[in-house]
Amino acid sequence: MSSDSKIAKAASLLLHSPPGEVDDVFNDIRGIVNDDEALQEHIEPVLAESNMQQFLATTVPDTDSCVLITPYNRVGDTQFSDPNTRTVFTFDHLHRTARDATPWDVPSDAQLHEPLRQALYDELLLYVRAHYADGSLGVFWHEGALVSCIVSNRFSPSNFWNGSWRSVWSFDPQSGQLNGSTKVRVHYFEDGNVQLDTQTDFAADVEDMDEKVRAKKVAKLIRGFEAEFQQSIGDGYRQLAEKTFKGLRRSLPVTRSRMDWDKVANYTIGGELANADA
Q1: What was the pLDDT predicted at 239?
Q2: What is the distance between the alpha carbons of residues 17 and 44, in angstroms, rounded to a whole number?
Q3: Quick one: CA dihedral 202, 203, 206, 211, positive or negative?
C-alpha cells in the first residue's frame, strides 16, 4: 500500500469519530502519520464531509444568524447559503470558521417556496427551543424538497461521555410526502469504551392546504415521530435492565448461597491455596 493510500485511510477514520471527539481523533492521526503537509492534502475533504455529516453550527459573518453546515445548503466546494439572511459565505473546514459573506442570488424555485420554508422554519424553531438543550435548526430548499435538519449535542468529556442527536426531514410540497431519519450516538468511555449508535426512519403523507397550516401539520408530525423514537429508546433500556440482564445471570451461584462481595478477595485467596495444596 502506498504512503498516500495509508494517509487517506487514516484520515477516513475521522468520519467514524464519536460525537465531540473529532479533534482527539485528528491529533491521534497526526501522531501516527507524522507528516502534516501530506496529511493536510487528504484531511480537508474528509473534514468537510465530517462537518456536514455532523450538521456543524456556525454564525454567518457580520450577523447573529446561526446556520448549519450541511450537504443541503452547500453551493460550492467551500461555500454555503443561509436562507434566513439570504447570504452565501465561505467556510474553513479545518478551523471551522465562516468568512466572506455576500448576498445570495436565490434560485427561482427556492424563491417560489420561500413562504412555506419560512413558515416551517418558524414552527420547528419553537419546537427545537422547547425540547432541545443547545439545539440548532436549518430548513433548506434542496432538489425539489424542503429539508429540515435538527441537531443537539451534549459533550461532557470530564465525565467521560459525549452524545449527539441528529435528524433530517425531507418534505416534498408537490406529492405531500414527508420522510425523516433520526440518529442518536452516545459514547461512554470511563474505564472502557461503550457506544450507542441507533437510527430510525419515518414516513407520512401531508395533504395540500394553506402554507401556514401545512407547515404546522409537518411540524406536528415531526414532533410526534421524534417523541416516539425517544420513548422507544427509553423503553429499550428499561427492557434491558429489567429482563435481558437478569436473564444473563444466575439468581444464585452454583453453591446456592449469595456471594458476599466484601469477602471476594478471601474467596480468591482460598481458591489459590486449595490449588496449591493439590
Answers
A1: 78
A2: 15
A3: positive
